[in-house]
Q: What sequence folds into this?
């Protein structure tokens, strides 16, 4: 028996590969099917089942494409009603993979179809549980993501309490817990950076598994402090219930190399967004095309795309780091942005060599920022971190203007003013700066290094 956790850091997501005697099961696959096909081929095995723990909100899963390419059966738990063919499992149903068994445990609460899968080894001894978003390491799934549900989030939290007490906690302490997400995901609020643990240790350390907790205490605890989920979550749930454009078609179109003239024509259209995904350094030093929005691929790329590009059908052309075009299109497709039309062949260098205009964001060091703040020489400094970060510690006399809500608040600003912006480390402030510039704000200066660098100066913090 082989059990392999496949971790994707950008989404803090874990898919799973289970193999026994030439048969394979995949749990919660990402959009792209190539990695799973490659693993099965290398192990001379055949993918028999594709198990989904629930309809995911934070990424588009790849079960339909993978099933078409392998003939595998897609399995969901009770209450799942997608628009494609599945085997709708029932609570307690066993599935055979080679010499091992996988048992479906219906664990509603995060969503009503949510299910946990219990794996028994060759000796029929329970080995691990794949908990999806029912149980994380250090947390549980948030119960407020169900789309078009007639249940309140309190109802869902109550279901989650029952699922944990009746289905998960009675299991043996030695079982390994394999969740679908880790720290950084918006599907929970207090997840550990660890990606697996024993159930016994979780019973001791996870607040949601406290034995003497009442149902109402659980509901209150789980719902307390929940922030608004990212805007793209409902779109991803919808896509996961339907059959979408095949991933191969998306990749072929999205990785088309556009000549300079083709790029100029396409990018000039009002319904097309130029997305610059290079590094912070390349973006600031080399500049970009006027009107381009920057979201660097090295950061939390996909979640920020989902949060800031409101139209999931948005037509996109890319300015990317050479050699990373396929990766960029893949990561866009994981959160449902399937309408990439291609990338600028030769990148920004081709644009510059043609003598075309370059747009740059002004930059200032933390030391320069500190000196000017102390001398009250800056017109409008803004902190684009989350309100929770800002309230913990911020520069005195600097207002919070969170990137998360930039489009809701941008009309409150004056395009004729000078703005000096920073985040924690420099990634989000460049995104914000590019959005400001794309919306007609020319006098934008980014503070290099962000709040981390500012803290090392003598500026007043509160």
A:
């Amino acid at each position: 028996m082989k059990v392999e956790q496949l971790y994707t850091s950008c989404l803090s997501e874990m898919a799973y590969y289970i193999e026994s005697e030439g048969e394979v099961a995949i749990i919660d696959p990402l959009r792209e099917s190539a990695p799973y096909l490659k693993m099965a081929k290398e192990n001379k095995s055949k993918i028999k089942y594709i198990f989904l723990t629930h309809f995911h909100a934070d990424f588009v899963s790849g079960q339909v494409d993978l099933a078409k390419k392998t003939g595998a059966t897609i399995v969901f738990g009770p209450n799942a009603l997608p628009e494609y063919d599945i085997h709708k499992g029932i609570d307690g149903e066993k599935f055979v993979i080679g010499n091992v068994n996988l048992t479906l445990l219906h664990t509603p609460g995060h969503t009503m179809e949510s299910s946990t899968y219990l794996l028994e080894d060759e000796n029929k001894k329970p080995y691990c549980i794949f908990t999806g978003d029912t149980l994380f390491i250090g947390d549980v799934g948030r119960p407020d993501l169900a789309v078009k549900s007639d249940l309140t989030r309190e109802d869902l939290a109550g279901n989650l309490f029952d699922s944990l007490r009746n289905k998960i906690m009675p299991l043996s302490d030695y079982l390994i817990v394999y969740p679908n997400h880790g720290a950084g995901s918006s599907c929970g609020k207090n997840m550990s950076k660890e990606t697996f643990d024993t159930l016994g240790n979780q019973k001791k350390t996870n607040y949601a598994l406290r034995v003497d907790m009442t149902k109402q205490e659980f509901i209150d605890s789980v719902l307390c402090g929940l922030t608004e989920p990212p805007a793209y979550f409902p779109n991803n749930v919808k896509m996961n219930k339907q059959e979408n454009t095949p991933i191969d078609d998306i990749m072929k179109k999205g990785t088309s190399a556009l000549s300079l003239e083709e790029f100029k024509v396409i990018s000039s259209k009002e319904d097309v967004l130029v997305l610059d995904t290079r590094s912070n350094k390349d973006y600031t030093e080399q500049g970009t095309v006027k009107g381009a929005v920057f979201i660097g691929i090295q950061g939390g790329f996909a979640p920020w795309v989902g949060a800031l590009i409101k139209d999931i059908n948005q037509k996109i052309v890319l300015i990317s780091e050479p050699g990373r075009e396929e990766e960029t299109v893949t990561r866009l497709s994981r959160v449902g942005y399937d309408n990439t039309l291609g990338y600028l062949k030769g990148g920004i260098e081709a644009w510059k060599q043609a003598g075309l205009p370059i747009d740059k964001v002004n930059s200032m060091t933390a030391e320069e920022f500190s000196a000017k703040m102390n001398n009250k020489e800056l017109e409008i400094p803004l902190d684009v971190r989350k309100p929770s970060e800002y309230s913990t510690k911020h520069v005195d006399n600097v207002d919070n203007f969170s990137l998360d809500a930039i489009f809701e608040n941008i009309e409150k600003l004056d395009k004729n003013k000078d703005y000096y912006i920073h985040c924690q480390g420099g990634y989000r402030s460049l995104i914000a700066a590019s959005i400001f510039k794309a919306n007609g704000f020319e006098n934008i200066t980014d503070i290099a290094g962000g709040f981390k660098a500012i803290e090392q100066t003598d500026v007043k913090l509160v």
